[in-house]
Amino acid sequence: MDDALHLEKFNHNLSMDLPVSASAADKVKPQKLDYFLVLDLEGKVEILEFPVVMIDAHSMEFIDSFHRFVRPTAMSEQRIKEYIEGKYGKFGVDRVWHDTAIPFGEVLQEFEDWIGGHKLWKQKQGESLNSSAFVTCGNWDLKTKATGMMTMMRELQIPIVGSHHLGMDDVKNITRVVQRMLADGSVIQITARRQPDTSDVKFLFNNRIR
């Protein structure tokens, strides 16, 4: 996102927000993947915000971020205006949303270009990720709700940064939870895969939270 107004509101260099101490990095166990893509979609009727933070699975360090506002296609302009003012007006970013939001199809193409630039997108091999995986707060972003971000942060005694339900801030906070898990010795495993032939989601843990 090169828009000056967007960049004025959102700093995409998150190294300062996601610091990693040497002592914490030393505790990270060998991981099966090289990168984690922390995703937290915002929206109810349609997706409104698409933020992703990429971290190194071995060092926990911030690598890059992707952030786009998404313009709905099925909602009326009046409904969009009311909804955006209600959701983003309190954060002071409703004007940025209106000036920079683009349709989901365009956002998805930009995202594929972004992960392709990091050599993580095998477009010619079934459109799958390469040595990386999406991390979400439970599988809620993938249609299954689990214990929320605020509960996890409270239990881990991690202070929240930014504003809850502003996607870019939420994805930073979820990333901090992932960093804590890694520093505590967790080996992150794939919990679900989307089947390329049917697009159905196959969950890999029998006792997952539903």
Structure in words:
Keywords: Exonuclease, Hydrolase, Nuclease. GO terms for molecular function: 3'-5'-RNA exonuclease activity; nucleic acid binding. This is Exonuclease domain-containing protein. This protein is of the alpha+beta class and 210 residues long. It has a single domain (4-203), classed as Nucleotidyltransferase, domain 5. Helix content is 32%, strand content 20%. It contains seven helices and ten strands. It has helices at residues 4-9, 22-25, 77-88, 94-100, 104-117, 149-156, 167-183, and strands at residues 35-39, 42-43, 47-56, 62-71, 102-103, 121-122, 128-129, 132-135, 192-194, 201-203. The strands form three sheets. Strands 1, 2, 3, 4, 5 and 8 form a six-stranded mixed beta sheet that branches. A two-stranded antiparallel sheet has the order 6-7. The chain is globular. The relative contact order is 0.18.
Supply the key terms.
210 residues; alpha+beta; Nucleotidyltransferase, domain 5; six-stranded mixed sheet; two-stranded antiparallel sheet; 7 helices; globular
Task: Give me the secondary-structure topology.
Layout: H1 4-9, H2 22-25, E1 35-39, E2 42-43, E3 47-56, E4 62-71, H3 77-88, H4 94-100, E5 102-103, H5 104-117, E6 121-122, E7 128-129, E8 132-135, H6 149-156, H7 167-183, E9 192-194, E10 201-203
Parallel strand pairs: 1-8, 4-5
Antiparallel strand pairs: 1-3, 2-3, 3-4, 6-7, 9-10
Domain Exonuclease: 35-187
InterPro entries: 3-5_Exoribonuclease, ERI-1_3'hExo-like, Ribonucl_H, RNaseH-like_sf, RNaseH_sf
GO molecular function, one term: 3'-5'-RNA exonuclease activity
